[in-house]
Amino acid sequence: MGNVQKARLAAVNEALKYFEGRRLIGLGTGSTAELLIREAHKAGLLRGRELVASSVETAEVLAGLGYKVVDTLSIEGLELYLDSADEVDREGKMIKGGGAALTTEKLLARHAELRVFFVDEFKVVERLGVINPVPLEVLPNALRMILSDLIKLGISVSVRKGSGKRGPVVSDVGGVIVDARLPSSISPEDFERRVKSLTGVIEVGLFLNEADVVIVGHEDGGTEYLKRV
To answer: pTM for the full model?
Structure first.
């Protein structure tokens, strides 16, 4: 097992503790979130619970393990939301959206009583956006206008291209995914405010206040908390 996988597994195993006493649970998207689902399945933690998926990808993983997925149309909120992140700083602020599910992920996180995020130590950064771009979800019909607006704001952007298909990546909710570089002169909070105010932008992949708990797994099997309630 590689160092990254050991660190991921350490974070996941710590996050599994939060299943106790909670029935209606939302689950994020991505390889680390999938690892949590599979580890929870092996431990029998998913049985008897109502599970809400943040993407078709996550729903397929759950269905493949024999679980039915609760539609978001039938719920008003969650008891627990569990997810990983692409980057996290020492204050527990995050970049998400590498799996193009940022809108549903943020929706579920904002409507959960407890939000637990877990990452390996290699995802921890001193400043958000230095390594990864910030994903944006944009209305398809507004794409060219939004790209122009972002460039006028001095933001470097690129439309994310799909793998195995022609054209841009389109999310489960129908938005086009655009990757934007966070300028060093703009705080994450100001960046989110400016970009979200543009008509046609559906969501911004900055999760600045969506985490109650942030767990970091280390390659030696240990964990630390950047945030904890």
So the answer is: 0.96
